[in-house]
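Revision sheet: structure tokens.
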Amino acid sequence: MFYIILTICGSILSTFLFTYFFHLINNWYDFYIPVLIFVGSWIVFTILSYLLFALFCMFFKKVEKGKFPEKYSSFGAWVVRNSAWFYMFSTGYFYKIKGKEKIPHDRRYMIVSNHVGANDPIIYMAGMPGEKVGWICKNEIMEYPFVGRLLNSVLFLPLERDNLRQEVKVIKKAQEYLNNDMCSIGIYPEGTRNKTKETLLPFKAGAFKIATATKCPVVVSCITYNYPHGTKHKPLIKIATINILRVIEPSEYESLDTNALSDMVKEEIRNFLTAKK
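Predicted:
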């Protein structure tokens, strides 16, 4: 909300000050002038907000390639949330979350979601304030200027696709975060965005070793949008919904292997998406 308030209030105040002190409205047809000033101020304060974002990111250390962050930053979480809200606000995205009361706030958990768009992680970061969740993400994201530093501060774990040795390291690190009560873990078991017409891509069962090894609850969630996934023509106002479907307790999957647990979660998400059609 910080960037949003800065942009809105700054634009309104600038418009008022310029109009009042420079006596820009002398006739009824001069009312277009404040409109132009407001638009210009909005652009300026939007740029300023992104510059502030870059400045905030410089406060965080860059983690060397092949290593993982070791400490969760509350300030980093504040920057992440406000940056996510501002990005959504400036690009026409709005969100709502259903079933949030199902999340076990008294324990660390692993949250699982389908993956349909590049903005999915941003929606979850904005829609779950107060939840310490480190997401497993593709390695390329951590190489983006400024963004990598920020995501390291909230224990995001970069994953190199098709690198089995590194995948094992990431899974072990995620287990360590859970066991040491550092944060909960978020995963996209499809492994990549679903750009097909299929309801879901095949799940990678190996990621569920995080849950079976730590005996943590598995929060099954599903993200949907007010437009079909994969479409190139999105509406001006885009609404994302985070649906918390259910929580699978350790006692429910203790006799299952990772493949069976993966199938259980996939079925939950598939049934929900099929019912939505």
